[in-house]
Amino acid sequence: MSDASRGIATEPLPAVPEGHKWPIGDLWRLLRGHGRPIGIATGLTLIGTVLGIAQPLLVKNVIDAAQAGGIPTWMVALLLVLFAGQALIDSCGNYLLGRTGQQILFGLRTRLIGHLLRLRIGIYDRQRMGDLISRANTDTTLVREAVAYSFTVIVTSSIGVIGTVAAMIWLNPLLFLIVLVAVAVAATMVLGVLVRIRVTSERSQASVGSMTADLERALSAIRTVRASRAEQREAERIGVHVKEAYHAGVRMAKLDSIVTPAVELTIHGSILVILLVGGVLVAKGSTSLGDLVAFLLYVTYLVMPLSELFEAAGTIQRGMGGLQRVNAVFTLPREADEQDGAGQWHPSWDNGRPVAQAARTDSNGKVVGRSHDTPAIEFRGVQFGYGTEPVLRDVSFTVPSHGHIALVGRSGAGKSTVLQLIERFYDTDRGEILFDGRDVRTIDRSTARAWVNLVEQQAPVLQGTLRDNIQYAAPHATEEDLEWAVRTASLTDLLARVPAGLDTEVGDHGVLLSGGERQRVAIARALLARPAVLLMDEPTSQMDSMNEHALTQAMREISATGALLVIAHRISTVQAADRIIVLDKGQVVATGRHEELLLTSSLYRRLASSRPESGITADR
After folding, report:
1. Average pLDDT of the residues in 563-581
2. What's the CA gap between 421 and 335, in Å, rounded?
3. 519, CA 20 to 30 Å: which among 62, 91, 212, 484?
């Protein structure tokens, strides 16, 4: 078990984050900054609606003229012009609104991805990666439908409904009253359903997120799953969430099945009643046939926008459920880009490597700045814990600007935590960590991470080519530097075996490479970045004796020009160190060279004798 996993449990993200209790306000805030295109699109839609509303009135006049004995040709031509003009203007307005919606979604996804990649490291320890990915994928898709599609529908349909209603009232208030009663009944039924749609959507998305997280868990360890004959168990585990999503989807379908039929039945019933009542009024001479036909046209015009309005309302409720889950991610704390006083440290660079600042004198000739023996890294009374219990207790040691330092200890002693604090994945609870004599909390994280580089024990390799992975921390490195890193990490034989050389694909998570090859790629990647201090977490754990010997030679070269801090796994790595730091229960209990510690430290003697051939300790 790694130090980072001590006392840490996976926690679900809050369904309704604090400060986001009114998600409709969040949807509205997404529209900020897009007022101009929305205003233009709304204006075009308004013009198109006016043209559409004018058409039944023109039909009324054509019918009345026909009853009087003639049909004016100009009226028919004008009707065709209005029809074509409405189609063209509506198309332009809808496109503009749709494009604006896509721009809003682009901004949301960009912000979300940027936030996800900059969360504090502890968040990744507690949250499930699959669920976070689901929020960036599935949930933002729901928001897109709510904003990019439904907002467009609401704008266009609302204007259409208002204009149509105004024309219906002008034509015949009595017939409109019949329609109003029918619509009010349908609206009462639908509004109660919409609230339940949002709640059901949240549950459905939560189930999909859990399903994605468990699927990612199984696929990322598929070889272990197969070797353990656990396919059925994993399928059943994931199937629980699939079933939950299914039941939520069925409930959603049941609720959706109420909305559209309610609207359609209401409108169709209204048409039947209007035909009955309107026919009587025409027979009595209270209204004209043209008025009745025009009114019926307006009723049919009302069917589509009303149906779309209710459907869009349901989509927005689902989108609000998705947006709440997205906003929950934004409530998670992210790493600060800079802290007070940060960004003022500018280490010198020599041959692509950051080096310690040279000493200088002030106007009085007094030496100021860094002296020649200032450590590259210094821990002063550091205390840190992931939970309530501290992992490190009053830890103090130094790493000189040149040399090879080994860190050893039993599992859980705090070795990996030391490296994570140096990389500023976490900040200390108490005490100081100094880079070249400067407190790391006064240095922005980007500059601090250029000073050091870490080779993790798991040696993660990203999907892509060998070149992509080795140049990941130094994308503009020269071919000469690339060749040096490849040679130093003992990757020359690998490149000779593969036909595409550095352009060979490594597969997802580097699955096409062996464990030792992945480790050497990670070492080459760190070397190419040329940090002042190279951190290695058990770099030889998956190497054979020949590659280990080559790496030991490389470490001598590295420590001659910079600092090297290694969590030791094998006794040969420990013996090669200039100084060894022994950790136990979060404290430094001994320091010295291998021969000295064998005489002075009983813990070190036990560690050294426990694995005389392969290493000091196999885990952290």
Report:
1. 84
2. 14
3. 212
Q: Residue 450 and residue 213: Cα distance in Å, rounded?
A: 33
To which H or E segment does residue 579 belong? strand 579-584
- At 334 the three-state DSSP class reads strand
Q: How far apart are CA 201 and CA 616, in angstroms?
A: 53
Contacts of 269 (CB under 8 A, 6+ apart): 182
∠ CA 344-346-350, rounded to 5°: 180
Rounded distance between C-alpha atoms, residue 62 and residue 222, angstroms: 73
- Which tops the pLDDT comparison, 255 or 221? 255
Average pLDDT score over residue span 336-345? 53
DSSP secondary structure code for residue 425 in this structure:
S
Using alpha carbons only, give the angle 485, 490, 492 rounded to the nearest 5 degrees. 85
Contact 338, 424 (CB under 8 A): no
- For the whole model, what pTM was predicted? 0.70
Helices assigned H by DSSP within 529-618: 545-561, 571-575, 594-600, 602-610
Find out whether 316 and 146 touch, Cβ atoms under 8 Å.
Answer: yes
Chain mean position to CA 154: 29
Query: CB count, 10 Å around CB of 374?
Result: 18
Place of tokens 């200039």: 578
User: Beta-carbon neighbour count of residue 87 at 10 Å?
Assistant: 12
Judge contact between 457 and 518, C-beta under 8 A. no
Answer left, alpha or beta for residue 341, where phi above 0 means left and psi between -120 and 50 means alpha. left
**Mean pLDDT computed over 433-462:** 87
3-state SS, residue 260? helix
